[in-house]
Amino acid sequence: FGGSWGSTLALAYAQRHPENVTELVLRGIFMLRNKELKWFYQYGASEVYPEAWQGFLKEIPEEKRFDLIEAYRDIFNGDDEEKKLSAAKAWSKWEASTSYINHNPEAIKESVNSKFALAFALIENHYFVHKGFLDYEDQLLDNIDIIRHIPTVIVQGRYDVVCPPTTAYELHSRWPESELKIAPFSGHSAFEKEITHLLIEATDRFSKN
Predict the structure, then answer these.
(1) Is 81 exposed, middle or buried, given 0-12, 13-18 or 19+ CB atoms closer than 10 A?
(2) How far apart (Å, rounded) are the C-alpha atoms in residues 200 and 196?
(3) Which entry of 46, 99, 160, 189 is annotated as an active-site residue?
(4) Hey, what domains does the chain have and what are their CATH numbers?
(5) Does the active-site annotation cover 74?
(6) Could you confirm whether 188 is annotated as catalytic?
(7) Sign of torsion, CA 50 56 61 67?
(8) Count of CB atoms within 10 A of residue 55's CB?
(9) Separation CA 3–CA 9 (nearest Å)
């Protein structure tokens, strides 16, 4: 069971240890490819949420904005603790601001909690800089045959800006044995009502097998 970055981990684990996995429930598919990272952290989602994007962008000097993930990495690895905290809050707030179909002030407030933001941003950025330590770009797609036999439900918000539906569709196209469930009026978060319903439906069904 995993959503977003968790779907990456779930796929990677299942492909490494298929004997330990009986079913998969995946949400908001993310396979850590360059085009997915660029969409959310460079150019793409920025066009949908331009006002939230400015908060993410302002932490980085103009001359370093050609690669924002790397620019944030430099701050997170630096010695300026005040700047590091400010950048971590901006990183975390960007994702919280784009994860729901409707504006969610409570999620945004929680995202800028200092302890949470530092843990969330530094861990995500570290893995993204290193492309999740996968062997190569399309590893998770190319290894589908290893897990093709595992019953799998993919839940995807139609208006997911963090992990757009095209990635879930690409995974399902390579893996037609999986079930792709589109939540037609939802964004990214597992707490969107439609998505929560579909996740519970899938886990309840698998629990009876």
Answers:
(1) exposed
(2) 6
(3) 160
(4) 2-32+134-207 (3.40.50.1820), 37-131 (no CATH)
(5) no
(6) yes
(7) negative
(8) 15
(9) 9
Catalytic residue among 92, 99, 188, 189: 188
| Burial class of residue 133 (count of CB atoms within 10 Å of its CB; 0-12, 13-18, 19+) | exposed
**Amino acid, single-letter form, for residue 26:** L
Residue-by-residue pLDDT tens, the chain, 209 positions: 999 999 999 999 999 999 999 999 999 999 999 999 999 999 999 999 999 999 999 999 999 999 999 999 999 999 999 999 999 999 999 999 999 999 999 999 999 999 999 999 999 999 999 999 999 999 999 999 999 999 999 999 999 999 999 999 999 999 999 999 999 999 999 999 999 999 999 999 999 87
**Which candidate in 4, 99, 111, 178 is catalytic?**
4
Residue 77 structure tokens: 């690895």
- Look up 46 and say whether it is catalytic: no
Question: Could you identify the residue written with the tokens 């439900």?
Answer: 153
pTM for the full predicted model: 0.94
Distance CA 164, CA 33 (A): 13
